[in-house]
Design a protein that fits this description.
Length: 348
């Protein structure tokens, strides 16, 4: 009996040594293995080997997160996370198609473009279909992102559109007479009023949107940058949805539309229920039975959390998410319907 316990003790010690060495190696050389993609069942036949992967695009679209745990929040979407999911799904032969689930006002131009490219690359490399489904709204960056899909459907009562770009907003105070600051609050008075300068592109995009007046050259430079992003946006929509660029610029503009108008303008392929969209994707994938799944967050157990890695509280995660939003809001190129700056709490 003693020899058995001795072997168990030696084996346990060996496991601890190996795991400790693995952690030390990662911390010293900054090497991190890629977590294996696992799924949770959402709908369909539980025993089916044909997987349809549901990928949510919820909240503000941003590029990367302050902490990896934010990738799995339904509060926001990070393009770095979507790119990783699509890459891993493309290497999994069980995945037969992607169902993009959208409810977003848009966000970062860079992040939205990255999601579009990731979806396009997935379709090309796998020949698998991608169907986008709008639950309530897909605005601005959401529209750019879903251009990577084969078909786009919307739930009844959805809003779609806002094809435009927001650059920065400047306030020029003419003849400042006083300036006071009290903690995080401040006030400015001037003799000749305030001029609000919004750099944007897309008909109606600036609707409802340094303390010196910008020069003509400065405005021209910013406007050219915004126009370049807008041109790419228009071309993507035109190519993906077969809509003339002139129609997008002059008729669609940066307005948003309900289902009937959006379908008439060819921004969507029709109105469907969630179940109907799933069936449509299965038909495009040419499979009779399927499981709709969603990617699971990697386990916090060995080896990912071995060594006492810190687990963030909900409040800490929300603080980091707010910081990410504020950082994105300061980005000069936004494909967002509204003002992301209004999402920032004081101090961020």
């Amino acid at each position: 009996m003693g020899s058995v316990w001795k072997k168990v003790t030696l084996a346990t010690t060996a496991v601890v040594v190996v795991c400790s060495a693995w952690i030390t190696w990662n911390r010293v050389f900054e090497v991190e293995a890629e977590p294996r993609l696992t799924y949770k069942h959402m709908d369909g036949k539980p025993s089916s080997s044909n997987l349809l992967l549901e990928i949510p695009i919820y909240g503000e679209i941003m590029v990367d997160a302050s902490d990896p745990s934010l990738f799995w929040s339904n509060e926001a979407t990070y393009s770095a996370h979507i790119e990783k999911l699509l890459k891993q799904a493309g290497e999994d032969s069980r995945v037969k198609g992607i169902l993009l689930r959208l409810n977003t006002g848009g966000g970062s131009a860079t992040g939205s473009d990255a999601i579009y490219n990731a979806l396009t690359n997935y379709r090309k490399s796998t020949q698998n279909p991608v169907v986008a489904y709008i639950e309530e709204e897909s605005m601005s960056g959401g529209v750019m992102s879903m251009m990577g899909a084969d078909a786009i459907y919307a739930a009844p009562g959805s809003n779609i559109g806002s094809i435009g770009v927001l650059g920065d907003t400047f306030f020029a105070f003419d003849g400042i007479t006083s300036y006071t600051v009290d903690g995080t609050e401040g006030s400015i008075t001037s003799d000749n009023g305030v001029e609000r300068i919004v750099i944007s592109a897309g008909k109606g995009k600036d609707f409802s949107k340094s303390y010196r007046k910008a020069t003509i050259e400065e405005r021209k430079t910013w406007q050219e940058n915004v126009d370049d992003t807008y041109d790419r946006f228009v071309k993507l929509v035109s190519k993906s949805r077969n809509i003339p660029e002139k129609t997008i610029r002059e008729k669609v503009g940066a307005y948003y539309f309900g289902n009937k108008q959006a379908e008439k303008l060819k921004l969507i392929d029709g109105t469907k229920s969630w179940d109907e969209a799933i069936v449509d994707l299965a038909k495009r994938a040419k499979i009779e039975d399927f499981r709709l799944v969603r990617a699971k967050e990697p386990s916090s157990g060995l080896p990912w959390n071995f060594g006492g890695a810190q687990t963030l509280t909900y409040e800490q995660k929300m603080q980091m998410l707010n910081r990410d939003r504020c950082s994105t809001a300061r980005n000069s190129m936004l494909l967002y319907h509204g003002s992301m700056k209004n999402l920032c709490s004081p101090g961020n």
